[in-house]
Design goal:
The chain starts with a helix and ends with a helix. By secondary structure, the protein is of the alpha+beta class. It has one domain: Aspartate Aminotransferase, domain 1 (Alpha-Beta Complex).
Length: 123
């Protein structure tokens, strides 16, 4: 895998859409992935407003977890604009070869936070 944003998007897309009851649509110009009822659980961000970062944006359990992650590994995690105040985290995909198992784990965690309980409990 390269740091090519299109290749990274395709890899993220395949993983996100493999989760139950998910779909993709553009949201504010970025590919977004959502579960039933239109609740987003992930976004792919590439050079948002010229920031130069390619990342996966996912939900965390809240601001405390977000702060802990950023403090523990500021080269991997960051607080994304707009979604950061709501506890979302940015996971950099452009620094080195992404750890796709780690990406999968975060997609699943974020999906569970967004999915209706009836669906999340089954999967």
């Amino acid at each position: 895998m390269s740091s090519n944003p299109e290749a990274l998007l395709e890899a993220v897309r395949a993983r996100a859409l493999a989760l139950p009851a998910t779909a993709e649509k553009l949201s504010h110009g970025a590919p977004g992935f959502y579960v039933e009822k239109g609740k987003f659980f992930a976004y792919f961000s590439d050079d948002h407003h010229g920031c130069g970062i390619t990342a996966l944006l996912v939900k965390t359990s809240g601001l405390e977890e977000q702060a802990m992650l950023i403090e523990a590994d500021p080269d991997l995690y960051y607080r994304p604009p707009y979604l950061g105040p709501y506890g979302w985290i940015g996971i950099r995909l452009d620094r080195q070869e992404p750890d796709w198992e780690h990406v999968n784990d975060w997609l699943m965690k974020s999906w569970r936070l967004s999915a209706p309980r009836k669906l999340a409990d089954v999967f």
